[in-house]
Amino acid sequence: MTRIAIVGGAGRMGQILARGLGALDDMDVVALIDPHEPAELYGAQYRADLESVEPIVVDVVVDFSVAVNVVHSARWCAAHKVALVVGTTGLGANHRAELAAAGERTGVVVAANFAIGAVLAERFAAWAAPYFERAEVIELHHDTKADAPSGTAIAAAHAIAAARREAGRGPITDTTTTWTLENARGADAGDGVRVHSVRLPGLVAHQEILFGGPGEGLLVRHDAYDRASFVPGVALAIRTMNRDAGLVEGLAALLS
Ligand code: NAD
Known about the structure:
Blueprint: E1 2-7, H1 12-22, E2 27-33, E3 45-47, E4 60-63, H2 67-80, E5 83-86, H3 93-102, E6 107-110, H4 116-128, E7 134-141, H5 151-166, E8 187-188, E9 194-199, E10 205-213, E11 216-224, H6 231-240, E12 246-249
Parallel strand pairs: 1-2, 1-4, 2-3, 4-5, 5-6, 6-12, 7-9
Antiparallel strand pairs: 7-10, 8-9, 10-11
Helix pairs in contact: 1-6, 2-3, 4-5
The site of nicotinamide-adenine-dinucleotide (NAD) has 24 residues, from helix 1.
């Protein structure tokens, strides 16, 4: 049985992870850590901070909180040799340096997207990229998303560009000569791989990667309908990571 403490346990993701991971046969969520008391405890203990948690009762800390707090989780996990899985986004170079330092003393996984389907979609796209003349990415999200394009779309575009370069294919040249409306062709994420962002109420998180070649097209699409889509990826990380040492960046590295 793997004993888990969730940092950010009162948040939207923290609550979904507490319920989802706690329902698995091989996992026991023992503590929810958050300055705010969680709406539901799902059988776990509530603690305001990691300092009030006995390290001996925790095997893995799962952090879905705020970027500034990740440094704190990294230091606590490193000091007590407790493994760490980080889903918190918006990490800067200082946070990443702290996670790398923690990875010298304990196992650390950090991933900006724990949806297994999204990670596989990027892998499929990189596989297809060298065989098509052009590729474009369309990401579609709910209308309250602040940033555009999504980090997942940028990562997919970069993976496509890298796969094309590796195969000796040059950048994609856009043949549009007249833009009747500015930016109608989206943004070039590098090597001519264009990314388009759609924002609509009712959507959650969706992505289409479109390939075109002579006489054929290919569409790789991923849909996240619910935040529950992140739970299996977090469970996979907990189960497959090396808990003793090493920093793993991105869920793809753990998919066989
Ligand atoms: P949220 O605002 O609902 O929850 C964040 C929680 O962190 C809050 O309850 C807050 O009180 C708590 N918190 C703040 N400071 C803290 C501290 N010092 N110690 C412990 N807890 C603290 O946000 P959310 O939607 O649950 O998302 C949380 C994070 O997870 C965000 O960075 C989000 O982008 C990220 N996220 C990542 C993935 C992924 O696949 N990697 C998926 C969804 C969300």
